[in-house]
Design brief:
Strand order of the largest sheet: 1-2
Order of helices and strands: HHHHHHEEH
Structural class: mainly alpha
Radius of gyration: 17 Å
Largest sheet: 2 strands, antiparallel
Length: 179
């Protein structure tokens, strides 16, 4: 995957020098969605509500991004010490249930997404040309050989794509609450 038709993200449009800043911006983006009116019980309920049984809540999408960023950081370090490692799947759908994402506090998740984004950004900020070109086998959607530059861009894509999902879900649940 080098372009996402759903959100419009094109991997090559993001230069490797822009990746750390783009990752840090994810923390700000999620904070703006999760923290407004954090004391408001209705807002917390909207963040936890699934618009449809098979569509994650805004909080679940946010927890997913937190975990993706943390896993990507571990994957990048593995690819720096092993030649062409094959990454294990993260079991995204199972994590939502096993990790009890909807039980998390929106304020905690906001802080954790920011921290995870910052940690990943800091790791990529130190890369040299050879490190960006190191290879790995990425498991999703099907196993494929990728570079760490792709992994970095994919991490940014995941965050930006799911910010749009959070916005969409919040609109859907707000509309159903009003109607």
């Amino acid at each position: 995957m080098d372009h996402c038709a759903q959100c419009g993200f094109t991997y090559e449009d993001l230069g490797v020098g822009e990746i750390p800043g783009a990752l840090r911006q994810l923390g700000t983006g999620f904070r703006s969605r999760l923290e407004p009116g954090i004391q408001d019980t209705e807002r917390e309920n909207l963040l936890r509500r699934r618009p449809e049984p098979e569509v994650w809540s805004a909080l679940e999408y946010s927890c997913h991004v937190r975990d993706v960023l943390l896993i990507q950081r571990e994957r990048l370090y593995l690819a720096l010490v092993e030649d062409n490692p094959q990454f294990s799947p993260m079991h995204r759908d199972q994590r939502v249930i096993l990790g009890r994402y909807n039980d998390d506090s929106a304020e905690d998740v906001s802080r954790e997404v920011g921290l995870a984004a910052s940690l990943l950004a800091r790791a990529f900020a130190t890369f040299d040309a050879a490190q960006w070109d190191r290879r790995c086998v990425y498991p999703y959607p099907t196993p494929a050989q990728r570079t760490l530059a792709w992994l970095a861009r994919h991490s940014v894509h995941e965050g930006r794509h799911h910010l749009q999902d959070v916005d969409r879900v919040l609109c859907m649940v707000a509309a159903s609450a009003d109607g």
